[in-house]
Amino acid sequence: RQLPAELTTLDPARLTSANYLDISNCEGPLRQQFRRVQSKQIPDPHMRQYGLHLRTSDIVFPDNTRGFLYLNSPSDQSPLAASLRLRITGSDDPRTMAEGHDLLMDYGLPWKIPILELLSRARYKNFMKILTEDGLAPPELKLVAVS
Question: pTM for this structure?
Fold first, then answer.
């Protein structure tokens, strides 16, 4: 299964039922980010982007992985702390996001793609385009990330 060709927003305030995804057993760019760490010394596979090469293996998203992709950007942190996450919900109504929960990896931390990874990898350019259109990725953010 592939992701829908057109995601219209990653802004939690602008989500509609059309943005509801079922990525159970999904192929494509998100699957490469759902990885199981073979060594538990450092549990987060995203650490590899900082020069640590971990032994990881691709795994498919679990059954019933349904919800909304959104940008999580804590207001009390740097914009570079933002990440793309998947909020698991019981329906395609965006109002259920508050009752949902973020998809968790098998070691208990939320599944995410950090904004620095979204900025630096060509395969995520469509996500960055959406974030820019949403006003969630101001041009200054890209300048900070590459400096």
Answer: 0.76
